[in-house]
Design a protein that fits this description.
Low-confidence stretches: 1-33
Strand content: 15-25%
Structural class: alpha/beta
Oligomer: single chain
Strand order of the largest sheet: 1-11-10-9-2-3-4-5-8
Shape: flat
Number of helices: 12
Number of strands: 11
Amino acid sequence: MGKKKRKQKLQVPVPKEGIQTDVQLQGIETMAEELKQRRLLSERRGERKRLIKQLEDERGSKIISYFTADRRNLGAQMGSDTIPFFFEHLQSVKKVEKIDLFLYTRGGHTLTPNRIVHLLREFCERLAVLVPFRVHSAGTTLALGADEIVMGPMGELSPVDPSVANIFNPLIDEKDPQKGNIPISVEDVSAYMTLIQEKGLSDPNVFSTALKALTDRVHPLALGNVHRQYLLIRTLSKRLLELHMKGEGDKEKIEKIVEILSEKLYFHGYEISRHEAKEIIGLNVSYPSEKIEKLMWELYMEYQDALLPGEEFDFNRLLGNRESGDFLLDSAIIESVDLIHTCSYSVNVKRKKPAAVEFDVNVRRIGWEKLEVQEVGK
């Protein structure tokens, strides 16, 4: 057998002035809208580096950015596949006094925050999370492990109660099992049980009838999994807070924070402002100076323009007058002064009928890779 081919990295040339009109991605057929996204990641690299360096100078820290695009299709969430890439950035940063994680995410895998926090803490004495806008769900769990949560006026946290899905959950469509299973919210089940307990006080038959109605619709093992996730998120939240809340009176504070974030806000989409996070929940929130606040928002806008969070890809516009095409679409980034890693989808898009606006999208590959940005003339 011949030697296995080494995976080729993307080489995107960028001029010193940051303007490049003739960008090509090796081996990928691209269209104007797709190139615009990758161009912004490459051409604006210099501006993002400038902002990161300025933030580092103002904060006296080393900064790593982690930004996930929260679109419904072809988006990204926090996941354990990022860990090796964080490690590569940290090896470049080396051991320092303070690391700031500049974060935007709508959530992800329940266990990922714990692993990221412990890895970051291997390389610093003090950890902070910078919150320019949304840091929800698993992102909030991650923030619990930081000594400081720096929130701008647009900064948001959220409850940490997860939704879980496994093979025992009800099917989305019983006629088509390929569509997957319905996620079950931990707090939805908890609220249902609380409701039937309250209403069943005057009628002993209410509880058993309501419980049977639940188990007739949801497999008992799925409910068992929900309870395990409930215990898991409370345990993780507590342990992450205990990394930096070690004082005499902190035990009660930790219990209060965990209870509020895991079950007392009653809606997973609840948007927690910085005032609520600090004054009501009791998190270690600080407000940035006017200069740092401005830098945080400018850096957020750079990532927003490049990754288009919340916006679905317009395949009709991507294809133009063609019937099919191949695209490389970025959905997340991990970035520091020295390195960039991007998570991208390699997809083939075909119109279902000639000139139709309905499409078949075949995802050929999704994964992380280092983006090599080279200055023209070097």
